Amino acid sequence: MPVESSIQNNVMAAPGQIESPIASTPALIPSNPELSVLIPVLNEIENLEKLHKQITTNLAALNRAFEIIYVDDGSTDGSYELLSKIAAKDMRVKVVKFVRNFGQTAALACGIDHAAGDILIPMDADLQNDPADIEQLIQKLEQGYDVVSGWRKERQDELFLRLIPSWCANKLISVISGVRLHDYGCSLKAYRREVIKDIRLYGEMHRFVPIYASWVGAKVTEMPVTHHARQFGKSKYGIERTFKVILDLMTVKFLSSYATKPIYVFGSAGLWSFVAAAGGFTWMVILKFFYNCTFIQTPLPVLVAMFFMLGIQFILMGLLAEILMRTYHESQDKRIYIVKSSINCQSDR
Fold first, then answer.
1. Residue 156 half-sphere exposure toward CB, CA atoms < 13 A
2. What backbone torsions phi and psi does residue 121 show, to the nearest 5 degrees?
3. Alpha carbon of 67 to those of 25, 32, 276, 314, 345: distances in Å?
4. Coil, strand or helix: which one is 191?
5. DSSP secondary structure string, 284-299?
6. 229 pLDDT above the threshold of 50
7. Contact yes or no for 111/195 (Cβ under 8 A)
8. Distinct helix (H) and strand (E) counts, the chain
9. Residue 213, Cα to own-chain centre: how many angstroms?
10. Between residues 328 and 47, which one has the greater pLDDT?
11. Which of 24, 71, 100, 300 has the greatest count of CB atoms below 10 A from its CB?
12. Which pTM was predicted?
């Protein structure tokens, strides 16, 4: 396939031209890439060279034109400097740097904005996703699907802090959304461009893209993918993300559209109000049946009712804030990220 380069004129580049991500001869960027690999990066300097070599080796074997888009989400460990060196030697690489950390959803949205491929493949930069699975994802996509979601069937993570909360969240999301997937949190997926090009992402909504796609008529499926234990660096995920997923899911179901972060503030206050109401009600019942203390002898019924109504009000206020923020962003065509610099990109968006 003919390729173009801003460094060399009309040179033909064979698949798999580069042995190392920082080689002596620049690899050339395809004029019309078929595949776009989107990789958010946050302090992953120890993983980047190995990751880039694995990706280029596996994609070159497919004999398809491809590009790799790294989005530096405010790294402070030198990741951007290393990515700059990689991009200088490999013109199939685009690098976008944020002025600060905006989160994985913003990084994915930025990658989609800068992608030129017909098939978009997001994945993590921590070497836990295996680039060798990209071929199987594409083959599954070509069976007539629009979205293929990876399923970390044998997930290499901590049981109590990661696996159990993730299992519960996935079950809840599947029940509420009606889209039955085992692993919404797996970053490794394959999308046809047409099903996500108009999706506007806010908050932590990147995990719900298959739901959005299904709601607009896309065919969604999943397949098991390899999952490796993290070797270098520190995980950016914690159990607190489970609560954010629940709040985001409420917004998705209510709006059937997009969301941003105000629901986290109001929603958290609402959930704590429900906890207080449940605690008061439990203690009220204990006093009634074990200590012969009637409800009217304590202020607990009033407190339970107050905290319960307060929780509902906080949740509704959060949903109203979501609508306002959606109007604010979309009416002014505002992005949820700010680009500081970019490499090998036609324009900064």
1. 12
2. -130, 95
3. 17, 9, 51, 44, 11
4. strand
5. HHHHHHHS---GGGSS
6. yes
7. no
8. 10, 10
9. 15
10. 47
11. 71
12. 0.66
Query: Diameter of the chain by CA atoms?
Result: 90
Q: Which token pair is 119?
A: 């098939």
283 burial type by CB count under 10 A (0-12 exposed, 13-18 middle, 19+ buried):
middle
CA dist 143 and 223 (Å) reads 13
6 three-state secondary structure: coil
In this structure, which amino acid lies at residue 61?
A: A
Distance of alpha carbon 185 from alpha carbon 152, whole angstroms: 9
H/E stretch holding 189 reads strand 189-192
Residue 64 banded pLDDT, cuts 50, 70, 90: very high
Contact 100, 28 (CB under 8 A): no
Question: Which residue is listed with tokens 């439990």?
Answer: 282
User: Would you say 128 and 201 are in contact if contact means Cβ atoms under 8 Å apart?
Assistant: no
Contact 66, 31 (CB under 8 A): no
Token digits of residue 1 = 């396939």
Structure tokens at 226: 């390899």
Count of Cβ atoms closer than 10 Å to residue 263 Cβ = 27
Label residues 78-107 b or e (16+ Cβ within 10 Å = b): ebbebbbebbebbbbbbbbbbeebbbbbbb
SS3 state at 168: helix
